[in-house]
């Protein structure tokens, strides 16, 4: 397992240390702290009935944001349902993330210049698409990559093998990230596959694969940066398995992790916490203070409050919106329904 920063916040692999400025290091910390707060607030908003679908992210910040920090604006993200943070740091306004959670069509419309599709709920469906987007970049001679995220459960799907195999055969400029948080809902990773690691599944399709400490933001960043370079240099796609853990429930729809995880397992992983170890590292370099962290927290809370208010003020979606956003030219049966619902909505 590739690691740079251990759980005590010590650099254990000096040679692999990525070339990041002090400002970059601080920005990574800000993003992780912000995202932890966003997670806490999203859970609370869900409980208050103000958000809909939500998949908690705490524990996975290094895995999500370290990989994202290695990307450029022109790179294309094909995320899973837990990967809203990467979309936000790629430019998705927070209000839209909240609208996505509520099932509002506006939450699925990416603003111009945000190179991403909305989070995929079907496990693995985004993986084959990512192979295609990465091949498109290659054919157009673009210095950009497609990056897709899935979980350990996603790595058991047919689409995972198809996507990686295709990308390997055609040299697609694609990075496949598997965030191995040890469970697919309640099913532990050992029960999902006889393979010792998920990273080794790269061997079967002839692409590069590596397992990374997913609680170490520097290692995840360095691995993704290298994978991006290799893809653009024509050296093929990469599979990155990040070893991580979700502290919360699977989603907010009634999952109870105490039924399949022990307190010991939870606390073992919490001791690996990505934010705690990165804070220790930054404090050791005099780059971080409690005041700075508090400022990030306060700013995050204010932004979240404003964004949820904006979501509340967004007009409710109508049946006619669903129809008109589906086709450029409506088939005749939908034209009829459109007329019918226009009539109903006007009352
Ligand atoms: C094709 C398909 N089968 C089943 C489901 C139901 N389902 C939703 S999440 C999930 C587990 C996925 O686990 P993993 O890929 O490890 O991602 P994690 O939730 O742990 O991030 C399943 C089986 C689904 N959404 N799509
Ligand atoms: Mg999982």
UniProtKB/TrEMBL annotation:
The chemistry this enzyme catalyses reads: N(6)-[(R)-lipoyl]-L-lysyl-[protein] + pyruvate + H(+) = N(6)-[(R)-S(8)-acetyldihydrolipoyl]-L-lysyl-[protein] + CO2
Read off the Pfam families from this record. Answer: E1_dh
Q: Out of the domains of life, which is the source?
A: Bacteria
Enzyme's top EC category: oxidoreductase
* E.C. number: 1.2.4.1
**Which key words tag this protein in UniProt?**
Coiled coil, Oxidoreductase, Pyruvate, Thiamine pyrophosphate
Keyword Cell membrane found:
no
**Domain Dehydrogenase E1 component: residue ranges:** 29-319
The protein's required cofactor(s) are namely: thiamine diphosphate
Coiled-coil features, chain-numbered ranges: 290-347
Assembly and interaction partners: Heterodimer of an alpha and a beta chain.
Looking up PANTHER family in the UniProt record yields:
2-OXOISOVALERATE DEHYDROGENASE SUBUNIT ALPHA, MITOCHONDRIAL (PTHR43380)
Q: What does this protein do?
A: The pyruvate dehydrogenase complex catalyzes the overall conversion of pyruvate to acetyl-CoA and CO(2). It contains multiple copies of three enzymatic components: pyruvate dehydrogenase (E1), dihydrolipoamide acetyltransferase (E2) and lipoamide dehydrogenase (E3).
Query: Which NCBIfam families did the record assign?
Result: PDH_E1_alph_x
Q: What is the protein's given name?
A: Pyruvate dehydrogenase E1 component subunit alpha
């Amino acid at each position: 397992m590739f690691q740079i920063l251990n759980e005590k916040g010590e650099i254990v692999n000096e040679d692999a240390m990525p070339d990041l400025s002090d400002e970059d290091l601080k920005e990574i910390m800000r993003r992780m702290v912000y995202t932890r707060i966003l997670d806490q607030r999203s859970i609370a908003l869900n409980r208050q009935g103000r958000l809909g679908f939500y998949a908690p992210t705490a524990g996975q910040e290094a895995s999500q944001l370290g990989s994202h920090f290695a990307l450029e604006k022109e790179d294309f993200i094909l995320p899973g349902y837990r990967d809203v943070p990467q979309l936000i740091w790629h430019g998705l306004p927070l209000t839209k993330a909240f609208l996505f959670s509520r099932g509002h069509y506006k939450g699925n419309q990416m603003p111009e210049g945000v190179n991403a599709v909305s989070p995929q709920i079907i496990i693995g469906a985004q993986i084959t698409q990512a192979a295609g987007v990465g091949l498109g970049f290659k054919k157009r001679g673009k210095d950009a990559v497609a990056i897709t995220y899935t979980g350990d459960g996603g790595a058991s799907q047919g689409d995972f093998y198809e996507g990686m195999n295709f990308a390997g055969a055609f040299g697609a400029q694609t990075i496949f990230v598997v965030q191995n948080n040890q469970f697919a809902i309640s099913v532990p990773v050992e029960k999902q596959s006889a393979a010792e690691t998920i990273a080794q599944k790269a061997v079967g399709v002839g692409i590069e694969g590596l397992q990374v400490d997913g609680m170490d933001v520097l290692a995840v960043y360095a691995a993704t940066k290298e994978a991006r370079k290799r893809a653009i240099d024509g050296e093929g796609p990469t599979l990155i398995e990040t070893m991580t853990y979700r502290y919360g429930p699977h989603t907010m729809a009634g999952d109870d992790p105490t039924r399949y995880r022990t307190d010991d397992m939870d606390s073992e992983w919490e001791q690996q916490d990505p934010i705690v170890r990165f804070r220790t590292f930054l404090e050791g370099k005099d780059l971080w203070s409690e005041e700075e962290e508090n400022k990030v927290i306060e700013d995050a809370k204010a932004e979240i409050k404003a964004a949820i208010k904006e979501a509340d003020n967004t007009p409710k979606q109508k049946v006619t919106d669903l129809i008109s956003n589906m086709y450029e030219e409506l088939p005749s049966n939908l034209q009829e329904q459109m007329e019918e619902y226009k009539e109903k909505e006007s009352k």
